Every structure is written in structure tokens, then in C-alpha cells.
Amino acid sequence: MTPEEDRQIRSRQKSRAIVTGLLLGALVLLFYAITIAKIGGGH
Amino acid sequence: MASSPIMSEGSASVIPAHWRDFVALTKPRVMTLVVFTGLCGLLAAPGHIHPVLGFTAILCIALGAGAAATLNQWYEADIDAKMKRTANRPIPAGRMDRQSALHFGIGLSFFSVLLMGIATNWLAAAVLAVSILFYVFVYTIWLKPRTAQNIVIGGAAGAFPPVIGWAAATGHISALPIALFMLIFFWTPPHFWALALFVKTDYAAAGIPMLPVVSGEVATRRQIWFYTAVMAVAAMAPVLLRLTGPVYGTAALLGTALFAVFAFQVFRRRESDPVRMGPEKRLFKYSILYLFLLFGAVVIDRWIFA
Q1: Under a CB-based contact definition with an 8 Å cutoff, are residues B176 and B244 in contact?
Q2: For B239-261, how does the pLDDT look when each residue is reduced to its tens digit (9 = 90+)?
Q3: B196 near B212, Cβ under 8 Å?
Q4: Which of B51, B63, B168, B59 is nearest to A36 (CA)?
Q5: Nearest beta carbon to residue A34 from set B12, B14, B53
Q6: Cβ of A31: how many Cβ atoms within 10 Å?
Q7: Which domains does chain B have, with CATH numbers?
Q8: CA distance A22 to chain B (A)
Q9: Over A1-40, what HEC string results?
Q10: ipTM
């Protein structure tokens, strides 16, 4: 593996980790909002 | 998100796919119409749905459509590589391996259906599951490589969103969402065959039996006109069945009349050079506007008169 490939792999892993983290955070908020809506008899 | 890496060309190293390529797999641009028709089904439905649950339902429809598009590209990677229009998609372009796309597509399918069931109801979730399975198995795997009528029956997959939106809001399916399903179902052939007329060289290169490739352009133009006539009946059905009022009735009448004019022009023409296919491109573009117009009119009509 060349240094350039190593750098590219780490860069991809980092950006994917950030996006995954953001998606998980959004899901936490979404499930919280769904729970509140359900408890409130929204549907 | 799937994490399987790809083997890069001529190297033993592995380069993971970029997250943007996972987004690209879901075809976000094509999703617009699916989301809009689903939203209209939800908004036109009687009763009230909590905005958070309504938002979640539309999110699930979008994720389900993205999952189906992903699985479509997983299965058709070899075909996509042969067409100029699709050769730069993540898998044929070599930016992602097929297994990552498969895992991502299956994961997204299960997630969208389960979330729909939990947030709204299991009828909406079941219809969403059927729409994904229909698109992947009936359209992509079974019909598309075998028959020139592929998009006629396969078009049903794209007709499900208003039914799903309605079911999410009400917990049941009634006559109006079925009428909207029929409208998209019969709208799909003229919409898609207008596109197939001016990109036919691509389909021919990939060996996909699109109607212009198998039956020729004259037959395709005749079929566009035939299905436009059937679509016109489907478009007026909600009015004739008294499911909608004058707002939709006026929009459907004028919108469909213009659609028929454009389709008739395409029917009468014998142009075979894609560069000079102005009316065909105009019909394709207008068909998208037409569906937005009619579905928007359904919502306004129901809000005023229902």
C-alpha cells in the first residue's frame, strides 16, 4: 500500500464515520420525536 | 452503512467507497416525484396525522425508494456499464463493490419498512414492502430483461407512494388512492417511452428490450398515444366517481388535454434522429410537470371540498 492510498483510505474512513455519527444523532432525535408524538396520541 | 471495501485496480490495497456514492445509489433526483406523490396521498387523506409521524412516513417512502434504486443498481451493474447515461454510477464506475450496495440496499429496505410500521401503521409498512419487492423482483429481475412491456407492469412500483401516504394517514386504503395509483400506472408508459425514444441507442447497446429497440419507433409512438388515451380516462376517473371536486377536475381536464396534444404530435412524427426529437423531449418534460400539477390539485381540492 502506497502512502497516498493509505491517506485516501483514512480520509474515506473518517468522512464515513462522521456521516454515520450524524445519521445516528438524527435517528436519536427522530425516535424521540416519534415517541413524544405517540405518547401525545398523535395517531 | 455498509463498509465492504473494494479492491482497487492493479493494487492489493482496499479503498472504501465514499459516503456520497451510497447517497448516489439511492437516486435522490428520481426520488422527488415519489416523495411528492406520497406526500400528496398523505395530505389528501381524511383525518389528521401528527406532523412528526407524517414526516416519518414520507421519510420512509423516500428511504424505501432509495433502497429499491440501490438494489436495482446492484443487480444491473453490468448493464449500467454498457450505457453512457449510467456508466458513471458508483458500481460500474468502480467506486464501490457490488456487495456493499447489496448490504446497503437490504439494510435500507428493512429499516424503511420497520420504521414505517413503528411510526404509522403496518398496512402502510406492508404496502411499502410490496412496492420495494415489486420493483426489485417483478420489474428489475423478471420483466425488464425479458419483455418490451416491462415498464407497463413495472410502472406499478412507482404508483404505490400515494397509496402508502394515504394508508399511513388513515390506516386503510379507499377508492381515491387506488384511482391515483391507476393514474401513475397509466402515466408511466408514455412518460418512459418518450424518454426511450431519444435515448434508444443506449438501451440497444445494453441489450435491454425497450419498446423502440424491439418493436421500432412507429410502434412506440402508437403505444405512447394509446396509453395516453387510457391515462386520460384514469385522470378523469376521480372526477367521474365524485372523489374530487372542480379544482382537480379543471386541472385534470386542461392538463390532460395538453398532454394529449403533445402525445399526438409524438404519435404523428417519424423522426429517428435523437438530436431532432424536440417534441419527444417536450412530452417527457411535460409529463413530469403534469403529474406534479394533478397531484397538487388533488391536495388543494380535498382541502377545499372534502
Answers
A1: yes
A2: 999 999 999 999 999 999 999 99
A3: yes
A4: B51
A5: B53
A6: 14
A7: 23-171 (1.10.357.140), 174-300 (1.20.120)
A8: 12
A9: CCHHHHHHHHHHHHHHHHHHHHHHHHHHHHHHHHHHHHHC
A10: 0.89
